[in-house]
Specification:
By secondary structure, the chain is mainly alpha-helical. Helix 1 packs parallel to helix 11 and helix 4 packs across helix 8.
């Protein structure tokens, strides 16, 4: 029994690692596709819906008992939030760089805590509040409280106005992700791959009127980047992620989640030459530390006593 548990956890670690590595490369796919944020998300949803739909059909998940009115309404609400979260996040890459936008976007757990306090009556203990303050301090450093704000990939730091627009878009994306997570919590018991399929299917319908079909790629290469986002960053990533979540404890998931921003930083530096200042690196570290403190339930005020993991 013990060997089986270890085997499942090892598999979960591999699945979670692969999912986070894939997620960390999404910024490169956005840039190399040469498309605007709305078109990128539309085709991500389109190709992702086709792949996830085939997967759900093969797994027998498209059953009537799963597709109740309640499930469809909640999936629609969460889907709208997650789709426009992608639009804002991808738009932010052009103004605040992949590195900085990803760091700002990783404040999403704190947004979720705030929504839980406002709408679910949840309480925030002193330790968790302290970690939120740590992460918020990191956010101030990342967005240029000291030094010049880091801009998009147009060649060096952008003007402050452009960088601040990128920060705002990334913050808006984080808030929409938190809203989606709050809604998805109410879909407990529904196969998560089916929820993802419903979400991206809705994304196709929502973004079809907004997509610019006059600006579609004329060469094969951009289409391959768009197809990759649908198959890799949507279908495969969600399948791996949800399988890992089923096999791993929350603390392990929280730690492995930081592979995503680490890969995003590496991609931004290696392929786009993005250079961050010492204050930005310190800020990213503080956001990561605050994230871990919240997710792992660290409580420095009570030595030896472990808090409850999860947000």
């Amino acid at each position: 029994m013990q060997g089986m548990t270890l085997s499942l956890q090892q598999r979960g670690v591999l699945q979670m690692t692969a999912a986070m590595v894939i997620s960390g490369t999404v910024g490169a796919f956005v840039f190399e596709s040469g498309q605007g944020a709305t078109n990128v998300v539309f085709f991500r949803c389109l190709f992702g819906a086709i792949a996830l739909g085939a997967y759900c059909a093969a797994q027998g998940l498209l059953r009537r008992e799963h597709l109740t009115r309640r499930v469809l309404l909640l999936a629609a609400a969460g889907g709208a939030a997650i789709v426009f979260n992608w639009v804002l996040l991808f738009a932010s890459f052009h103004h605040a760089s992949i590195s900085i936008a990803t760091a700002v976007y990783n404040t999403q757990p704190f947004m979720l805590i705030g929504l839980g306090v406002l709408f679910l009556g949840e309480r925030v203990g002193a330790a968790r509040l302290g970690w939120i303050v740590v992460a918020f301090s990191g956010l101030l450093l990342v967005i240029g409280l000291f030094g010049t704000p880091v801009g998009g990939h147009g060649g060096g730091p952008a003007a402050s106005g452009g960088a601040w627009l990128g920060f705002g878009l990334a913050m808006g994306a984080a808030m929409l992700y938190a809203v989606a997570a709050l809604v998805i919590k109410r879909l407990h018991g529904t196969p998560p791959q089916l929820v993802a399929f419903l979400q991206v299917g809705l994304g196709v319908l929502l973004l079809a009127p907004l997509a610019d079909f006059q600006a579609l790629p004329q060469a094969p290469a951009p289409w391959l980047w768009l197809l990759g986002m649908g198959l890799l960053h949507t279908a495969l990533m969600y399948i791996l992620l949800y399988a890992a979540i089923q096999n791993l404890p929350t603390p392990r998931i929280a730690v492995l989640s930081f592979i995503y921003p680490a890969v995003a930083l590496a991609v931004d530096h290696a392929f786009y030459g993005q250079q961050l200042g010492a204050w930005q690196w310190l800020g990213i570290g503080l956001i990561a530390l605050g994230n871990l403190g919240v997710n792992l339930g660290w409580n420095p005020l009570q030595r030896g006593e472990r808090g409850a993991a999860g947000a």
